[in-house]
Write a structure and sequence with these properties.
heterodimer; A: 401 residues; alpha+beta; Butyryl-CoA Dehydrogenase, subunit A, domain 2; four-stranded mixed β-sheet; four-stranded antiparallel β-sheet; 12 helices; globular; B: 382 residues; Butyryl-Coa Dehydrogenase, subunit A, domain 1; Butyryl-CoA Dehydrogenase, subunit A, domain 3; 11 helices; 50% helix; binds flavin-adenine dinucleotide
């Protein structure tokens, strides 16, 4: 055991940090810091900058654009990127469907999709959840009926993040209605432009539009878009969800938000003093910092165990990362709300992402995004497998209860 | 002590509840919010007909002489349906100032007009720098012969963009955060030198930024004791806190009812999700938080006019702490237990959560009041 980063790792981190500082366009960075909504172009721009550097999909095999980094280097890279703070690469491609295609797809699929994912030429979305299949994901009802060289897909997906921009959706569909729940499911890639696919927006209560319903009405999908074997989709989904959970800890983002929190608490005054001078407030921040440091160490432990290759399956401890990570993101958003104080009240976040403030802000401009941010982040304990479900997984898979 | 409502109070509760159930549903609420001022004038007139707009006023002023308990009953009913109307601003705050601090002439000209629904009022007090400090007033009031001239800016004036008349605090003397030297003035919203900008708030209501530039008010437009209005401001702020606590309890109750109903009907894994014990316990914890909040809303109503201002202030701080904490817990858990649907604008839970969040930021959040209470020695010492 050596608990320090090696000199090489530190040099690597410095290189990543220098790159982020130089390469991240200032307008995107400012939006990230201020918590303003990003537009599609921001993500595409940033992804292509990363890709040009060869860092778009560092965790993939080198053959498909991976950087060949160690788990620690990967962690340091993500941490620096999140702290920059740079946009997170759209997870549906690089973290979800990409690794599934790499692990279970055929060569044609790899050649066709992977480079376009790395460059964000294709915008992917995740078609797992349905109205009746949320936590009970294996209850999906959307059907894909095989007819010759294609499937006919009918049904509905929901809560589909950023489907409004999507070129492709990966779906869990039922290919064998007579099989037991988990066994009749397949993993299908569907072009969003296919006739019969309809996207309907869902507004979240913070005012944003990031989720959608997606309807499939006799949608013809070429059979070559099936990933892996028919009726084995549940295995691929479990693989994907394990990856999703560890990505969700977002420790670097929490670090960046804590930094922002301290900056704003120095601007907000309470009486004749900045809020940050209030020891009680500093204690609240410090309490979160303690938890975040602990989570970071846990994350590194998980990575080290994965690297030492006990097995290639995601660690059940990834549930801990998701759970604690989301709780900390939410706790930070609560403290940011407290910093806004009475100026949490005005509703002035532009709802349309292209829209800018066209009136002078009420109160300090920095306060405007904090209540919507707090509201929006309630999602973090719901998606990616709700926190209750994570605890069920810990109880069953780790504790054997 | 008797926690049962008396006959008249029960009738009030029933009639207000019935009327609101008929007037409000999520679709209509959305429609009202887009009317000028962000609420329905038609409903406002119904309130007037039921006597709600004069609830705390004496009969000779068109009121029905209700006390803190009656206000609590009405506010709780508003909370259940997330009523948008500027009742707090007009009746509780402004009506309260005039009732307790207005001269005979002001009382007899204004209170009947509030009660009849003809006149809307708002309390313009907070300033950019004041955060939750009620005494932090920089706006100036300068004597000029028999007049007073007001200069300064007010922020987050609840219901400020629809008000016809404003009650404005300003400093006659003293340093910015002194509690002495503050006066209260009655100012027409359309008076020369008054400019305002209305905007929506996160809870679907409206507020305004209001600037005063050389606004002249006559000597008879003074509320309370000039230069010594702070005790009155604290007293009426306490009325507002008690009223907001009651409203929050109504909102928490509705949200909890709704969540429990959802646990019974939403099925996953082939069973209602309410079968999962962890969710049963969560709902039970929410109920505990709700009942603790309800008890403190009652305590606040009980103490709202206590003869000892220090005890009254401590009680309000205690109540606001409990309401803030319970509201946050119930709001967050309601969203959580609904899963994805809880995150949507079209579903009611988020709107309740936003109102509970907004209430926490009004007249001091839970943290502010906890610190205040601790500084004052805490409740046990009282
Ligand atoms: C903002 C947002 C973005 C999303 N993006 C996507 C996306 O891009 N693609 C996609 O496919 N999905 C997406 N989702 C869906 C998300 O994965 C589901 O919301 C989640 O799985 C929960 O399902 P549900 O909403 O149906 O809630 P339900 O499953 O109905 O859960 C309701 C409540 O019951 C609890 N519960 C359920 N079962 C149990 C149990 N066995 N034990 C204890 N408690 C239980 C849950 O924890 C929750 O609190 C998104 C959701 C949100 C909110």
């Amino acid at each position: 055991m050596d608990l320090r980063f090696t000199p090489e790792e530190i040099a690597f981190r410095d290189e990543a940090r220098a790159f982020m500082q130089k390469a991240l366009p200032a307008p995107i960075r400012d939006k990230m810091i201020e918590g303003r909504r990003l537009v599609k172009d921001d993500l595409v721009t940033w992804q292509r900058i990363l890709n040009a550097k060869g860092w778009a999909v560092p965790h993939w095999p080198v053959q498909w654009g991976g950087a060949g980094w160690s788990a620690v280097e990967l962690y340091l890279f993500r941490d620096e990127m999140q702290q920059a703070p740079a946009p997170e690469p759209l997870p549906f491609g690089v973290n979800m469907v990409g690794p599934v295609i790499i692990a279970f797809g055929n060569d044609a699929q790899k050649k066709r999709f992977l480079p376009r994912i790395a460059n964000l030429d294709d915008w992917w979305c995740q078609g797992f959840s349905e109205p009746e299949a949320g936590s009970d994901l294996a209850a999906v009802k959307t059907t894909a009926r095989r007819g010759g060289d294609h499937y006919i897909v009918n049904g509905q997906k929901t809560w589909t993040t950023l489907a409004q921009y999507a070129d492709w959706i990966f779906c869990l569909v039922r290919t064998d209605p007579s099989a037991k729940k988990q066994q009749g499911i397949s993993f299908l890639l569907i072009d969003m432009k296919t006739p019969g696919v309809t996207v309907r927006p869902i507004q979240t209560f913070d005012g944003g539009h990031e989720i959608n319903e997606v309807f499939f009405d006799d949608v013809r999908v070429p059979a070559e878009n099936l990933v892996g074997e028919e009726n084995k989709g549940w295995d691929y989904a479990k693989f994907l969800l394990g990856n999703e959970r560890s990505g969700i800890a977002r420790i670097g983002i929490s670090k960046a938000r804590l930094r922002r929190l301290k900056e704003l608490a120095a601007l907000a005054t309470s009486g004749d003093k900045p809020l940050i001078a209030d020891e009680r407030f500093r204690m609240k921040i410090a309490a979160i910092e303690v938890e975040l440091k602990a989570l970071e160490m846990t994350q590194l432990r998980v990575l080290s165990r994965e690297r030492n290759g006990h097995d290639s399956k995601p660690d059940p401890a990834s549930s801990i990362l998701k759970l604690k990570g989301s709780e900390l993101q939410q706790a930070i958003s609560e403290l940011l709300l407290e910093v806004a104080g009475p100026y949490a009240l005005p509703d002035q976040m532009p709802h349309d992402e292209a829209e800018r403030w066209n009136e002078p802000p009420v109160g300090p401009e920095w306060a405007a995004t904090l209540a919507p941010h707090y509201f929006n982040w309630r999602k973090a304990s719901i998606y990616g497998g709700s926190n209750e479900i994570q605890k069920n997984i810990i109880a069953k898979a780790i504790l054997g209860l | 002590m008797d926690f049962e409502l008396n006959e008249e109070q029960r009738l009030l509760q029933e009639s207000v509840g019935r009327m609101l159930a008929g007037a409000y549903d999520p679709d209509r609420r959305k429609r009202y919010a887009s009317e000028p001022g962000g609420f329905s004038r038609a409903i406002w007139h119904t309130y007037a007909e039921l006597g709600l707009l004069g609830l705390p006023f004496e009969e000779k002023h068109g009121g029905i002489g209700g006390g803190a308990v009656e206000t609590m009953i009405v506010m709780e009913s508003f909370g259940r349906v997330l009523a948008l109307d500027p009742y707090l601003a007009s009746v509780v705050l402004s009506g309260g100032f005039i009732r307790l601090g207005g001269g005979d002439v002001v009382q007899s000209t204004i209170l009947p007009r509030i009660a009849s629904g003809e006149m809307l009022m708002a309390f313009a007090h907070a300033e950019r720098q004041s955060r939750y400090d009620l005494a932090d007033i920089a706006m100036t009031a300068r004597k000029d012969g028999s007049h007073v001239v007001l200069d300064g800016e007010k922020t987050l004036v609840l219901g400020g963009d629809s008000a016809d008349q404003l009650i404005v605090s300003a400093r006659l003397s003293g340093a910015r955060r002194d509690s002495s030297g503050i006066g209260l003035f009655l100012v027409g919203a359309a008076a020369d030198g008054v400019t305002r900008r209305g905007y929506p708030t996160i809870d679907g209501r409206r507020a305004a930024e209001i600037a005063f530039s050389g606004v002249r008010v006559a000597a008879d437009a003074v509320i309370g004791e000039p230069g010594n209005a702070f005790p009155l401001i604290e007293h009426i702020a306490d009325h507002a806190i008690a009223a907001l606590c009651a409203e929050a309890v109504g909102a928490m109750q509705a949200l909890h009812d709704n969540t429990v109903e959802y646990l019974k009907t939403r099925k996953q894994f082939g069973v209602p999700i309410g079968n999962f014990q962890v969710l049963q316990h969560r709902a039970a914890e929410m109920l505990i938080a709700l009942e603790q909040a309800r008890s403190m809303a009652l305590f606040a109503a009980m103490m709202a006019d206590d003869a000892d201002p220090a005890a009254r202030r401590q009680a309000m701080s205690a109540a606001k702490v409990q309401i803030g904490r319970s509201g946050r817990f119930i709001g967050q858990q309601a969203i959580q237990l609904h899963g994805g649907i809880g995150m949507t604008m079209d579903y009611s839970a988020g709107h309740y959560f936003k109102r509970l969040t907004a209430i926490d930021t009004m007249f001091g959040d839970a943290d502010h009041h906890l610190a205040r209470l601790a500084r004052s020695g805490g409740l046990a010492a009282a």
